[in-house]
Amino acid sequence: MKKKSVAALLVLSMAASLLAGCGGSDDSSAKSDAGSDAAATDEAKDDGADEAKDDAAEAPAASGDGKVYYLNFKPEQESQWNDLAAAYTEETGVPVTVVTAASGTYESTLKSEMAKEDAPTLFQVNGPVGLASWKDYCMDLSGTDLYSQVKSDDFVLKEGEEVKGIAYVIETYGLIYNKTVLNAYCGMDGAVVDSIDKINNFETLKAVADDIQSRLDEVSAAAGDGYNLAGAFTSAGMDSSSDWRFKTHLANLPIYYEYQEKGISETDAIEGKYLDNYKNVWDLYITDSTCEPGMIATKTGDDATAEFALGEAVFYQNGTWAYQDIIDAGVLTDDDLGMMPIYIGVEGEEKQGLCTGSENYWCINKNASEADIQATADFLNWVVTSDTGRDSLANQMGFVTPFKTFDDGYTPSNVLVNASNASIDAGQTQVAWCFTTMPSENWKNGVGAALTEYAQGTKEWDAVVTAFVDGWKTEYDATH
After folding, report:
1. Three-state SS for 98?
2. How far apart are CA 113 and CA 127, in angstroms?
């Protein structure tokens, strides 16, 4: 594995960011004999890539009478998981069912499915807060083959010595930008900057976006045939397919900086010191946009993707997972794509990097039958060791994973991942995913509703502050 890849960041930046920013976790109980011949001790985890290659070559098939039911969190990878399940069943005879929750409904779907007799044997939590809700269902994975393949405990959720969840994908988000358009703008007379790398703080980002918004036709012409810009930023859609980008991912920034300043990793009461910065970037998103602020309630994630992929906007807040959707539109190529940090106007942000972490931790349902637990553990081991499984995760789903077995040539071809690597190589401080400590989904919904009403002009910004600060305390108390 290359020293400064995104996966390497997992050991370096995630460990650092947990101490400085967020994401430290305690996790929960249970015992597991599930599908494990190897005790995953620290010594075994340091054996290195050669042993991982041997394990991958063996990729033992499952046995027994068990079955697997995976409740998938990621709608964008639904077809790939279905294909992978079918391939495993064909190879081993073990039935694997994949059910994918609709965007924004995973928690409610999980509650519903867990109440059924045939509950999921494999599910996921988003981090410490998710684990707190589901730890009584989470088997201890410390004795599984899957855990023996994890590079570091930075990528697991633990309660004491018990491993309750294992991250299976590490992702990065920021401001995806159209490099072709932005380079063309930088070469125009009167441009705010003459090169993209000079956009390294909020003040400059805003000045560039404002200028582009004021002369969309000129910038379109400079970019060349096929460009018809409608806004500097894509629409900030606030339906359930898109609002998580702002009530969760954008909201991560003011939380991260407050945690950094206080030297904490979670809190029962957020102060909201950086909410003016949150307002600054939200105002920019809804003003220098492809649509009027009052329309964002009707805009979707697909709208934003299409606007960017078809060359109608220069900036698009999203992450490495959006790469394939952009490319599949058939207009933009790798040469057109870049990703920069989300700047919010904090002192010293010139050294800020992208937002890197995980909210995707596999958990095995300890209440499933012994046969189903064994089958599920075997399935996960196959996913991360077999050629079929590794090809699917790395090349079809585009995942960067924390498993040793992927160092043997299984890294995704994704220019946005490359941008993340470049951010690390440049020594930028990666922003931790503190949103995994948000007190509840209800809190996020309250913030999202307040953002929408503010954009529509029916509420003042104070409503966002109230939802953010007072709502945090209320929801924290309710969930604890």
Report:
1. strand
2. 20
Cα 115 to Cα 107, 119, 157, 418: the distances in Å are 13, 7, 24, 42
The pTM for the full model equals 0.79
Domain ranges, ordered by start, for the chain: 6-170+358-431, 174-355+439-479
| Residue 378 and residue 370 in contact, taking contact as beta carbons nearer than 8 Å | no
The DSSP H or E segment spanning 69 is: strand 68-72
Burial class (CB in 10 A: 0-12, 13-18, 19+), 164: buried
Helices within 171-251 (DSSP H only) = 179-186, 202-214, 216-223, 244
Strands 352-357 and 429-431: parallel
Answer whether 432's CB lies under 8 Å from 18's CB: yes
Question: Over the stretch 301-343, which tens digit does the pLDDT of each residue have?
Answer: 999 999 999 999 999 999 999 999 999 999 999 999 999 999 9
Which architecture, in CATH terms, is 174-355+439-479? 3-Layer(aba) Sandwich (3.40)
Say whether domain 6-170+358-431 belongs to CATH 3.40.190.10: yes
